[in-house]
Design goal:
The protein is α/β, with parallel strands linked by helices. It is built from 13 helices and 12 strands. Strands 4-3-5-6-7 form a 5-stranded parallel beta sheet, sandwiched between helices. The chain has a 5-stranded parallel beta sheet with strand order 9-8-10-11-12, with helices on both faces. Helix 2 runs antiparallel to helix 8 and helix 10 runs parallel beside helix 13. It binds 5-amino-5-deoxy-1-O-phosphono-D-mannitol (M6R). 5-amino-5-deoxy-1-O-phosphono-D-mannitol binds next to helix 3.
Length: 364
């Protein structure tokens, strides 16, 4: 049941602190300050390349995961959308690790890609939310998310739980490959453990975000900008908005704006900028200024420090708690979900069952 929420999507957004904590519990030994992926007959120290495949929101989780795995474990990651993977006949060395990410575990394109990878001698790891699904059954290494059943067609809690598992996997790989010390691991685990509380603080902004939905609802086009791991979060924000509000939205790497999309900017195009403080902040802000100089109406999502530095002149700001850059994607998922939700409610669409979409896409 939806409890006291108007839609399943809202309920599922609000459940995230709980289900992310639940998911992390299976992968993190908080007391020891260690991650613990159930690897069975897998030797993670032998993994020197990862091939990731997924669709939609799960693909964006994978893009964040690529960033983490390369950064912490220094293992190269290839990532494809499932519908492209098989047909480009990817070069897969025997014994490589192929990782499939899926809420449902039934997405036809992803399942076909998994079978293709197996035929090519890959070992199959699966991040999946439905433990009885086809992908779960066909995995050599099963990495379940513990989001519980997700009813809203727009994926929210399954996505952030996928991020939690991918972060743990990245750290585990880093340790197995001798890339991080026990102290560094303890520090990363401590940051991960802060994610649920930080997400709860992001959810506290529900009413503020509702109050700014009217800035986006009349738009025909919306842009989302981010850098580094917040670039896939920009893609995810745009997908959420498209799916449930039917407004055309695009996510861009902030630095790509000047290579074309900036031509779209005028005062009718809201631009949502995801920019947590950190090493990439100044660069993202200078891209944001380029947008503002062309009349673009910016909604800045940042922390108090970022908003103090760059919030002036934005049409609205959404203040996130200050968090370590590792967990920023988990936290910044919340405001983009809530913004899409409130815009859709304002437009009166069918939030949980948007037109033309199905919860699990079982045709290729
Ligand atoms: O069940 P899966 O994670 O494999 O589904 C993949 C996509 O179909 C899914 O993420 C879709 O993009 C969602 N509707 C996003 O909200």
């Amino acid at each position: 049941s939806k409890g006291n929420h108007a839609h399943f999507m809202r309920k599922e957004i609000f459940e995230q602190p709980l289900v992310v904590a639940q998911t992390l519990q299976s992968y993190v030994r908080a007391f020891e300050g260690e991650v613990a992926i159930p690897t069975a007959d897998f030797d993670l120290s032998q993994v020197d390349r990862v091939t990731m495949v997924a669709c939609g929101t799960s693909f964006y989780a994978g893009m964040v995961g690529k960033y983490w795995i390369e950064r912490f474990a220094r293992v190269p990651v290839d990532i494809d959308v499932a519908s492209e993977f098989r047909y480009r006949d990817p070069v897969l060395e025997k014994g490589g690790l192929a990782l499939f990410i899926s809420q449902s575990g039934e997405t036809a394109d992803t399942l076909a890609a998994l079978r293709h990878a197996r035929e090519q001698g890959q070992r199959i790891a699966v991040v999946v939310n439905v433990p009885t699904s086809s992908m779960a059954r066909e995995a050599d290494l099963l990495l379940p998310t513990r989001a519980g059943p997700e009813i809203g067609v727009a994926s929210t809690k399954a996505f952030t739980c996928q991020l939690a598992v991918l972060a743990a996997l990245a750290v585990n790989l880093a340790r197995a490959r001798g890339r991080i010390s026990a102290d560094e691991e303890r520090e990363i685990v401590a940051h991960l453990a802060e994610a649920p509380e930080a997400m709860a603080r992001a959810i506290d902004h529900d009413e503020d975000i509702k109050a700014m939905a009217h800035l986006v609802a009349p738009a025909r086009d919306v842009l989302y900008l981010g850098r580094g791991p917040d670039y896939p979060m920009a893609l995810e924000g745009a997908l959420k908005l498209k799916e449930i509000s039917y407004i055309h939205a695009e996510g861009y790497a902030a630095g790509e704006m000047k290579h074309g999309p900036i031509a779209l900017i005028d005062d009718a195009v809201p631009v949502i900028v995801l920019a947590p403080s950190g090493p990439l902040f100044d660069k993202t802000v200078s891209n944001m200024q380029e947008v503002r100089a062309r009349g673009g109406r910016v909604i800045l999502i940042s922390d108090a420090e970022g908003i103090a530095a760059a919030g002036d002149g934005c049409v609205a700001t959404i203040e996130m708690p200050a968090v370590h850059e590792l967990i920023a994607p988990l936290v910044y998922a919340v405001p983009v979900q809530l913004l899409a939700y409130h815009v859709a409610v304002l437009k009166g669409t069918d939030v949980d069952q948007p037109r033309n979409l199905a919860k699990s896409v079982t045709v290729e």
